[in-house]
Amino acid sequence: MNAIFCANTPYPTASSFYPSSVALVPVSPFSFKSPKRPLARSLTLENTEGSASEESVSGSSQTRRLVMLRHAESSWEDRSLRDHDRPLSKDGQADAIIVSHKLQMLGWLPELILSSDAVRTRQTLSIMQDQVRCFLDAEVHFISSFYSIAALDGQTAEHLQQIICKFARDEVLTVMCMGHNKGWEEAASMLTGSSVELKTCNAALLEATGRSWKEAFSLAGFGGWKLQGIVTPT
User: Fold this and answer.
1) Please, which domain of life does this record's source organism belong to (predicted)?
2) pLDDT: is 56 or 147 the higher one?
């Protein structure tokens, strides 16, 4: 395992909690084949300005992987903070370490990360970037609407589709979306046609095929994405 650790990280080390093997919630047979990943640039934006390149990947349809990750557990210790500003708890920090390495071992490493701008989501990503280099190499956009849309009934799945198609170039094969319940659970369930439960720091692994992300969403529709598994910290 080629983990990258920061020398002065305030977080616990992975060896304190990381299990010797990876267990997935058994929802379907799991494929360990990982697509080749071009090196992505690291980019942070505070809004949704801009759009994905019009470049297309030539040839046949390719497998598109979508990681839907709910933020790690947050702390309620400081009741004066707005919900948006609550940080991670110590358990949440430890869970983020574990899940980052599980995703690395399974080969589900994103080239593009689309994340809520809430503090707990930013901190979850920061820990993952400290632990695994590929999360640091990925292109990152913080999407403010991810925080608010997750609280609305029945709107998250369509919103995710719009944002992914806006930012994901056709050559990008793995995208990770980081956000909140109830929207993340609801969207994963709608996309796969399965009842998906996402506790804190759980990641649903979805697959569809298409020559582009737009085509993958069009062909799979709601209910057509394949749920390959759910990664959990335990």
Assistant:
1) Eukaryota
2) 147
